[in-house]
Amino acid sequence: MKAKELRELSPEDLRKKEQDIREDLFKLRFQHGIRKLENPARLSLLRRNIARIQTVRAEQANQ
After folding, report:
1. How many distinct structural domains can be found in the chain?
2. What is the pTM of this model?
3. Which of 24, 41, 42, 63 has the fewest other C-beta atoms within 10 Å?
4. Exposed, middle or buried, 5 (CB in 10 Å: 0-12/13-18/19+)?
5. What domain range includes position 13?
6. What is the pLDDT along the chain (63 residues), one digit of tens a residue?
7. Domain of 47: which CATH number?
């Protein structure tokens, strides 16, 4: 997800999206511990998306 798209969302939508991504990341880490993932790069993609959301939320808080 691009930062431009995230900036268009409301703070509540950003919080919900971050929560959903964190749940996906947790499930993916759990699967990674049990077996090999089909797409291990997805782990880093989810972490980057969480960081983007946190950055946008901080920007909105400072405005």
Report:
1. 1
2. 0.91
3. 63
4. exposed
5. 3-62
6. 899 999 999 999 999 999 999 999 999 999 999 999 999 999 999 999 999 999 999 999 998
7. 1.10.287
